[in-house]
Amino acid sequence: MVHLQIHQQYARIGLNIKDPAIRLHTSHPRLEMKTRPGQLTMESPRPDLHIDQSKCFADAGLRSPEILRDYIASQALSDFMEGVGEVVSEGDALAQITGTSIADIAATCLDTNYVFDAKAIPQQRPDIRFDIYPVKIDYQPADADVRLRQGRVESNLERGKVEVYLRQKNYVEIRYAGENYNTVA
After folding, report:
1. What total number of domains does the chain contain?
2. What is the pLDDT of residue 174?
3. Residue 75 domain-assigned (yes or no)
4. For residue 40, pLDDT beyond 90
5. What mean pLDDT do residues 142-153 have?
6. 137 located within any domain
7. With 24 labelled, which of 65, 109, 162, 183 sits at a CA distance of 20 to 30 A?
8. Is the confidence at residue 185, as pLDDT, over 60?
9. Kind of pairing, strands 4-9 and 152-158?
10. Which region, left, alpha or beta, applies to residue 99 given φ > 0 means left and ψ of -120 to 50 means alpha?
11. Domain carrying residue 26
């Protein structure tokens, strides 16, 4: 019987692995905006109010300054003429030797009849009117100036690597483990 010892070692490989890497550098997009707000200008002229109360004043016996001036001037002229006439007639009456006396002239002045009349004034409404003006509107719309600065992506790819190397060699060792006999047959 032959005794052999066989000792073997398998080959081993080693791996150097470098993972792939991607490096990204980004600059974000920016939106630059300049705005001017809208402007609204409104001008509203107030209405003009016209009130004509001349009819009401006429009912109360009041007059406008022009009419009152003319009325007073004519009334003064008429009163003056009437007063002159009375003085002349009184003088004529006193110039007569017989007839009226000063007492008679005074008595005629006392015979004045007064008429009292009550009524509500004014009897007519005042004339009221409005002049209305439209609203003036000036509108300037808003304005926006928009600029987009685009973002960028810079990429740097480092490729992965796999290096294979022999870490342990394979071998087979065969030994005779027994007695050595020299036999010849």
Report:
1. 1
2. 85
3. no
4. yes
5. 90
6. no
7. 162
8. no
9. unpaired
10. left
11. 1-40+148-175
pTM of the model: 0.31
pLDDT at 132 over 70: yes
d(CA 128, CA 51): 5
98 falls within a domain: no
Nearest to 90 by CA among 104, 80, 111: 104
Tell me what the mean pLDDT of segment 46-70 comes to.
Answer: 80
What is the chain's Cα-based Rg? 68
Contact by Cβ (8 Å): 26, 156? no
Residue at 182: amino acid letter: N
Q: Are 152 and 24 in contact (CB under 8 A)?
A: no
CA proximity to 143, closest of 41, 42, 40, 33: 33
Which residues, at least 6 apart from 71, have a Cβ–Cβ distance to it below 8 Å? Answer: 63
Task: Check: CB of residue 164 under 8 Å from CB of residue 14.
Answer: yes
The phi, psi pair for 61, rounded to 5°, reads 85, 10
